[in-house]
Amino acid sequence: MRVWGLARLAALFVALALGGCVTAENSLSQEDIASMKLTGVTVSFEPNARVQWDDGFRAYTAGRAIPNDEMAAAWARPEARTYVRTLLASEIKAGLEEAMAGQLNGARPVRLDIVVKEFNMSTVIESVMIGSNNHMIATANLVDARTGATILSNPDLQGFLPSKGGIIGTAVGLAMDHVFTKSPAERLIEQYGRAYRTWLIRSV
Question: Under CATH, what is the fold of the domain 6-52+82-201?
């Protein structure tokens, strides 16, 4: 329900572009990777994580008879933020499990801990006025499941969901959403999962 200022969004676009040029090093050998077995995925959020996901907020307000003029106040409720983050965490967990399914089949148990920094699904107004900015930024920690020690970390891994802006582009994008079996948020998470899989295993 939030509408970011034009200056803030412009600065974010620049930061994302620059951040996308820096790739964390994957120091694991193919033998290391082949020895691992993924036993679980956890998802948490940084305390100041920025989350904009209208579908999650609508799920929170469903059945709660909140008047339109009280929607902004409802979004600010701690219980609303907790609800949205819990729902989003389950979506991210499922998406990462799907992306990594069948990839790590060794004997050493490992866990993937995702710490979300930003999850942004542009509102319709943002898409029309300045173009869409659908992205997810999260730290991906590969952890030894027995000891909890971090094996490998990618602190600023990003996923993007390309789409068109403007009135026509937004209308086409909304129409195309009905073609996909997954929601835009699920497709964004899928892109993040693919980015991690490619980075870790060096395979698409």
Answer: Rossmann fold (3.40.50)
